[in-house]
Structure formats: C-alpha cells, structure tokens
Specification:
The protein is mostly helical. Helix content is 98%, strand content 0%.
C-alpha cells in the first residue's frame, strides 16, 4: 500500500512539473503573439493616414461630379422647358 502512495506522489510531482513547463511555454507564446499584434497595429496605424487621404479625395471627386451632373441635368431640363413653352405659345 505504501508503494502505491509513493508512485502516486511521484506521478503528481511529474504532472505538476509538466504543467509548470507548459504554463511557461504558453506565456512565452502569448508574449510573441502580443509582439506580432503590436507590430501589425503599428503598420495599420501608419496606413490610416493614406486611407484618410483617399477618403478626402473621393469625397471631393464626388462633390465635383455631383456638381457637373446637376449642371448637365439643369441644361437638359432647360432645353425641354424652352421647347415646351414654344409649343404652348404657338
């Protein structure tokens, strides 16, 4: 009976040592993953300015094209209104 207790104690000690080693390896892995994520975040932040620039440029281009299109629509509408007025005047 005493022999069984010694074997169980030895196995528990080995299990605790294995768990401690695995815990240390997990912490090391988490530190590496954290470093990789920090690096990726820095790269994303550096690209943020470029995306803001593209956003501003697309907004200005949209404003210009909307203005041009509204001018063309007003011109075409004016042509049809003049044609309609001439027909009613005659």
């Amino acid at each position: 009976m005493e022999f069984l207790g010694v074997i169980l104690d030895s196995l528990l000690i080995v299990l605790v040592i294995i768990l401690i080693v695995l815990g240390i390896k997990m912490l090391d892995t988490l530190n590496k993953v954290n470093a990789i994520l920090d690096n990726a975040q820095k790269k994303i932040d550096s690209l943020d300015g470029v995306f803001n620039l593209v956003d501003i440029a697309s907004n200005k281009l949209s404003l210009v094209t909307d203005t041009i299109i509204s001018g063309i629509i007003a011109f075409i509408s004016g042509l049809f209104e003049k044609k309609g007025k001439r027909d009613t005047d005659e």
